[in-house]
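Consider the following assembly input.
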Amino acid sequence: SQTIHQWPATLVQPVGSPLSLECTVEGTSNPNLYWYRQAAGRGLQLLFYSVGIGQISSEVPQNLSASRPQDRQFILSSKKLLLSDSGFYLCAWSVSGAGETQYFGPGTRLLVL
Amino acid sequence: GENVEQHPSTLSVQEGDSAVIKCTYSDSASNYFPWYKQELGKRPQLIIDIRSNVGEKKDQRIAVTLNKTAKHFSLHITETQPEDSAVYFCAASKGGGATNKLIFGTGTLLAVQP
């Protein structure tokens, strides 16, 4: 069966510091991968998605970036965090193709102070 | 692009009553409609989904209906229990591409009062 991991689970970082969040998927090949952000009490905002190694599409302009160095690894990064970057970051995967279910990872709770 | 509206934003029901959450979408090409349940501090989890070639789908106390003509779909929960309390998100996705982007509604906070 497929499993999706995210780490760290929680993170407290000062404003201006760098960020690296990691997501890995097991038990499947060539998945579509997604990064979402959820502010407290709010909906799910799609940040990036990837259909293959090195292929990243950005949904919203921001100071975050994403990379996919391996088939089942998805990384979310920032060079300098802003207060507004605080939130719950969720990685998700789906089988490649349209109309496929997305499955979410456990999430990383980021607090920027 | 696709836009998904979800109502109500909050819903309070008595245990045992039914709950209905409604979503409308704008892109007639959308053909996949999942519903996710998110408990406080947890990840969203798929509870039921429906594809455009089906009008209704049921799984125990949960059902989803789809009206393609009107471009709306609804989640029905019968005999609600306190453990049904959570935020529920609807979403829509359209075929014809490899990306499978889901457009989410803004969520409904369901509170089931014991």
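The mean pLDDT of chain A is 93. Ask yourself how this observation constrains the way the partners meet.
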